[in-house]
Every structure is written in C-alpha cells, then in structure tokens.
Amino acid sequence: MKSIDELLASNREFAESLPAAHLDVHPARRLAIVTCMDSRLDVFAALGLSGGEAHVLRNAGGVVTDDVIRSLAVSQRRLGTREVMLIHHTDCGMQKISDDGFRAELQAATGTAPSFAIESFDDVEANVRQSVLRVRRSAFLPHRDNVRGFVYDVDSHALREVAVDEGPATRGGRSC
Ligand SMILES: [Zn+2]
Which of 54, 125, 154, 155 has its CA 20 to 30 A from that of 44? Predict the structure, then answer.
C-alpha cells in the first residue's frame, strides 16, 4: 500500500509537468515486444523507445502463452503491428523454480493444482528459441516474417540476438 501511495503522488507531479497530448492507439513503430516482468529491465530506456511507439507485453519469463498470442493477434490484426521482438534475460526468476516443484507448492498451499502451465526453464537461449517458434507457428498471427529473439544481460544492459533454426517441421515452407 505504501508504495502505491507514493506512486500516486509521483503521478500527480508527472501529469502536472506535461502538456495534455493524444497519441494514436496504433504503435508508430508497428512493433510488439514480449518480455519478462523483471524489475531490472526498463524496456523503454533500454531500447530508446518513447510512448506511442510499441506494444509491450510482459509476464513471468516473457513466455509466449495463449494470452500473449491473444494480445499479439489484437496487436497485429487491429492495431497495425508487423514485427515481434522477444526479450528474455539473464538471472531470470523462472530459472530458479521448477514446473513440478512450483506446481506442488501451489497445490500444497491451496488444495488445488493450477490449470495453467508454470513454464519455468533452465536454458534461457533455448527458451528464447521456443518462444520465437511459438510466435512463428501461430496461425492466429498474420505477420510472422519479422520475429526475432534476444537475451538482455541485466548486469551489462546489452542485448544479444539468439539465432533460431526453424527445424525440420517447418523448413521449406510454413506448415500453418
Ligand atoms: Zn525474468
């Protein structure tokens, strides 16, 4: 509660410091970014982005879940985005849990096993590749030619790209 009250005070100063302005709902860079909720990754600062330029979808791990596909479908089909940038990062909290262990913890605490997948991972680059492929293979998305994946180093602040081999399932043409 204390933090939220402090942020509300910050917002009052922020709103008073800026002139009112209306930006188009369509992101100017026609770009959607999917990334982790990690508090050390300031997406706008790290990429030199400004408001109105890109959609930013975040969850634990930057995992491409059904709900991320839902958002990307709206982003591409209604709001004009054409590129997808996936950003995972070093020292992710999702590398510190296991699917089975966290599922058991939730079940032990509540008596109910969650219906959702936990989606923890060990190898961040493998997880980026998995995420890129999930986007590229989603038939709900009309624009899948410009989907690239990266790892952000939370200490050096630098991005590095992860090469993604389409694999035998899709080589030679899209299967979906
Ligand atoms: Zn993370």
Answer: 125
Find the 136 Cα to ligand 1 centroid distance in Å: 22
Work out the angle at residue 39's Cα, subtended by the Cα atoms of residues 13 and 87, and round it to the nearest 5 degrees: 120
How far, in Å, is the centroid of ligand 1 from the Cα of 127?
A: 11
Distance (angstroms) between ligand 1 centre and the Cα of 16 equals: 33
97 C-alpha to center of ligand 1: Å?
12
Predicted structure pTM score: 0.92
* Distance of alpha carbon 65 from alpha carbon 28, whole angstroms: 25
Q: What values do phi and psi take at 165, rounded to 5?
A: -85, 125
Render pLDDT for 48-91 as a digit per residue (tens, 0 to 9): 999 999 999 999 999 999 999 999 999 999 999 999 999 999 99
Label residue 168 by pLDDT band (50, 70, 90).
low
